Amino acid sequence: HWEKFQNELFKVTTREGHIFAMKPMNCPHHTQIYARKQHSYRELPQRYANTTMCYRDEQSGELAGISRSRAFTQDDAHVFCRLTQFEDDMTKIWKIGSRFDQAAGFTLNVRLSLHEPKHPEKYLGEPARWIAAEKQLRALVKKQKAKAIEAVGEAAFYGPKIDFMAKDSIGREWQVPTIQLDMNLPERFDLTCVNEKGEHERIVMIHAAIIESIERFMSILIEHTAGQFTLWLSPVLIQIILVTTKHNASARKLHKQLEAAGLRVHLDDANETVGYKIRKAEKQKAPYMIVIGDKEKSLTKLSIRIRGKKEVKMVTLKAWIPLLQKNIAKRAI
């Protein structure tokens, strides 16, 4: 990483001339955890993951809000395994990434990011190792019965990767989960396991990130949904609005019932007009709004306003709460 990216790191030099860099990624750190002792083949795969801040000295023209920043939170995972094991772990990561992004409402396309043979200086390792790794990833894509777009020149400098591309509501494409097969860093860091014959066997390394930059993912999600999060993702699912303070007791009782059912609910008991409270709730984009007046104070039947719809729906708590819980549990879009 230093060889390729030292100009993109935040660095400080001590009075004694030692150079320190703020952590740009977790790959070298996880290799050192693996290298702390000699592993047997019986201990593999070894899987490490952490979600921490990373820092990169991006140029001002490259910055874009929280979509691209100099400090970001990365969910970073690395699997250290034998070449015969990588397919199983990559398949598991594939399933996790697909499930995650589909639950967030994205349709995913698969991109196979390959090296550029005409510019070998951009990559680590021998061309033969790259060809072998890319052949393995093609076989994995085929086994998953997926159609992948091949993108020459989009590989990481240490290995080819499978990127999941999400298209947002205005047609922009974003790379979200990524799984990378690395045969080069284990070579450079001399990472091995002791195999069945007692020999030192070179291992491979899988780099994986489901969200990658949490800040960037949130920016994509907010813009994709225009802030109208699906039910299970909404910070507040239900806004309760009082018509007057005399409905306070009923509203508080309802608030307790909904909270007890595991629903995120907010009670607006401010001394303001109903119209103003409704406009406030609409701006907050909660999926549901309940207005408590004389007709609703018994809580037998409730008037539910659904986000983005003008009509009011009459429901009973007994029927409505299980329906919400079911939709949340299955992460319905």
Main features:
333 residues; alpha+beta; 7-stranded mixed β-sheet; 5-stranded mixed β-sheet; 9 helices; 17 strands; 30% helix; elongated
Structure overview:
This protein has 333 residues and is an alpha+beta fold. The chain contains 9 helices and 17 strands. The strands form 4 sheets. Strands 4-5-12-9-8-6-7 form a 7-stranded mixed β-sheet, with helices on both faces. Strands 14-13-15-16-17 form a 5-stranded mixed β-sheet, sandwiched between helices. The longest helix is centred in the N-terminal third of the chain and has 18 residues, at 86-103. The chain is elongated, with a radius of gyration of 26 Å. The two termini are 40 Å apart.
Sheet with most strands: strand arrangement:
4-5-12-9-8-6-7
Work out the helix count: 9
The radius of gyration computed from the alpha-carbon positions, rounded to a whole number of angstroms, is 26 Å
Number of beta-strand segments: 17
Largest sheet: 7 strands, mixed
Given helix and strand content, the structural type is alpha+beta
Strand percentage: 25-35%
Mean pLDDT: 89
Query: Share of helix among residues?
Result: 25-40%
Outline: elongated
> What order do the SSEs take from the amino end to the carboxyl end, as H and E?
HEEHEEEHEHEEEHEEEHEHEHEEEH
Spans of at least 5 consecutive residues whose pLDDT stays below 50 are: none
Amino-to-carboxy terminus distance: 40 Å
